[in-house]
Amino acid sequence: MTAGSATATLKLSAGQQAAIFAHAERAFPDECCGAIFGHADGDTREVVELRELENTWDPAERRRRFLITPEEYMRVEREADDLGLSLIGFYHSHPNAAAEPSEFDREHAWPWFAYPIVEVRDGEATGMRVWQLQADRNGYDELSVELTED
To answer: For position 61, what pLDDT does the model report?
Structure first.
């Protein structure tokens, strides 16, 4: 995986980040996953709503993989539309691993979404980094994170 420089910003509130961290801690030692609804304006994406999703990967492998079914994807995309929002990304956690996308993540990502990854060490969320797959699918650009007040 190659990483580029930050080309975009993900804006979210401290409360939204705390909600993602809490979800990741509850799911530990498995990976959690969730959808992000909001607005995209140029290089800035603003989070408005979060939706926790069920990790439907095989239970024996959930410690290092997550899966969102096509039906669940379609449901959250419709829900975002119904709210007048856009589906702008998906978050997930990496239990006892760095908040960097894996090769598996790269193979399953789409270039237009933001992908926050939460590092969870021994059940405690220790940080989050946000990534966007490059258009040629050869690597990621790291997005900057702008925390806003609740």
So the answer is: 84
